[in-house]
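Regression test case RT-17, inverse folding.

Input:
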């Protein structure tokens, strides 16, 4: 028997012995099948994959001009401007000209252009940005034609070992296709975004691929390529994509006209289960999400979730850690309920949690303009929506920094988005008007108490 026939017989034997659930995924059974091409999938997907060009104007700040004596003798004329450009990819998801890309590709951009596979270019407006998922939605300007799109697959149906293609514009060389397999699913310890639940693939992904398409063998979109693990800056076979079930939530918010993504609000803080906690709870392995606190009046409170409950499932999906819970809960449709599997005192329990958005009343958001260490900071009262969005402890009193103007005093002295200002010069800060009033006063020294990442920090700054 020839080597080819022996090889074919082995493949057929392996296919016959595969589990029934994997019958649709089989190894090539003949030389003819080995010669099959991905070309039809690529030809279907290419027109819907675009290049995204973003540009923003920045001023070159001369550090000598920060010295008032230098300015007095040499003047402080206008600073020269420089244009910073970034390059990425995107996917057309609606025939009207709606494009999904990565937020980091267009963040801070003053101008965005989208180039199609046929080389045509369009100006684009930013419809929605979501830093928590690192996704953004663009819309092409001044066009009435219908564009080619990619259908979104159910990313929960992916299996490790499935073949996938990555399409994008790596290093700006032009649209490129690479292939590989799904190397892993539900990667939750990557540290890229708030919602960490990535598809891992060995399909080559490089700088410029960000925002591009990861497609399956039916030509459907299964993920948005977003990051790589690399020591060299190039592909080393470990790339990460945001699953389309999360992408679908962001697209729905953009189509509804919202400027922010609408997600279900749990109203509870969760923590990971360490080996020590698992031993205390009598668990065979450290898994699940442990309830560390419950906000009074929140959906979790109304559903009966309690401190020290262990969440192990959401609507039939197993939960290994808090990141997995965040993803599963955030991708549930608003308006219904989610069934939460809980272990309480070693006994299983099912709770039904209403899927509703967090209330965002009384935030009183303002930008501080008076000369002070806070100049250029946007601040707000801590509403449930802000606490949920910035992952803050809603029980902490104070006002939170929600944004910082580029080059402003607040950014230069070290304030960060998510900082909670608790006190200034021994005066408690309860609401935004308190901090605004204090910044209108003159002080030689500013003694500021800040809560960052749950830790209290005391700093002293010059006036």
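Golden output:
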């Amino acid at each position: 028997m020839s080597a080819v026939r022996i090889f074919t017989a082995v493949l057929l034997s392996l296919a016959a012995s595969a589990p029934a659930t994997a019958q649709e995924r089989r190894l090539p059974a003949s030389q003819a099948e080995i010669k099959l091409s991905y070309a039809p999938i690529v030809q279907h997907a290419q027109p819907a994959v675009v290049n995204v060009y973003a540009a923003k104007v920045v001023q070159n700040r001369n550090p000598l001009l920060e010295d008032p004596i230098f300015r007095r003798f040499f003047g402080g004329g206008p600073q020269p401007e420089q244009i910073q450009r970034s390059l990425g990819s995107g996917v057309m998801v609606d025939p009207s000209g709606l494009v999904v890309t990565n937020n980091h590709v267009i963040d801070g951009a003053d101008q965005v252009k989208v180039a199609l596979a046929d080389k045509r270019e369009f100006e684009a407006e930013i419809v929605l940005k979501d830093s928590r998922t690192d996704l953004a939605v663009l819309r092409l300007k001044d066009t009435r034609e219908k564009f080619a799109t990619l259908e979104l697959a159910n990313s929960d149906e992916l299996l490790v070992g499935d073949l996938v293609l990555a399409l994008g514009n790596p290093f700006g060389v032009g649209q490129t296709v690479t292939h590989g397999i799904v190397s892993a699913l539900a990667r939750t310890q990557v540290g890229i975004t708030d919602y960490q639940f990535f598809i891992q693939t060995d399909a080559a992904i490089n700088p410029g691929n960000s925002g591009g398409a990861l497609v399956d063998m039916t030509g459907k979109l299964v993920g948005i390529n977003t990051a790589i693990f690399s020591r060299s800056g190039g592909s080393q076979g470990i790339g990460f994509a945001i699953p389309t079930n999360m992408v679908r939530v962001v697209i729905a918010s953009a189509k509804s006209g919202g400027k922010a993504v609408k997600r279900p609000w749990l109203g509870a803080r969760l923590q990971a289960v360490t080996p020590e906690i698992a031993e205390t709870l009598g668990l065979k392995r450290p898994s699940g999400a442990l309830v560390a606190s419950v906000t009074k009046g929140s959906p979790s409170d109304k559903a009966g979730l309690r401190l020290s409950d262990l969440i192990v499932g959401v609507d039939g999906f197993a939960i290994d850690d808090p990141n997995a819970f965040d993803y599963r809960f955030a991708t549930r449709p608003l308006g219904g309920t989610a069934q939460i599997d809980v272990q309480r005192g070693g006994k299983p329990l099912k709770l039904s949690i209403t899927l509703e958005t967090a209330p965002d009343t009384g935030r009183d958001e303002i930008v501080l303009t008076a000369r002070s260490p806070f100049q250029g900071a946007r601040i707000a009262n801590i509403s449930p929506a802000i606490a949920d969005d910035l992952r803050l402890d809603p029980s902490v009193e104070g006002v939170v920094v929600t944004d910082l103007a580029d080059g402003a005093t607040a950014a230069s002295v070290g304030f960060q988005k998510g900082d909670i200002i608790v006190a200034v010069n021994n005066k408690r800060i309860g609401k935004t008007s308190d901090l605004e009033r204090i910044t209108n006063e003159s002080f030689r020294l500013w003694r500021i108490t800040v809560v960052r990442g749950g830790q209290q920090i005391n700093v002293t700054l010059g006036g």
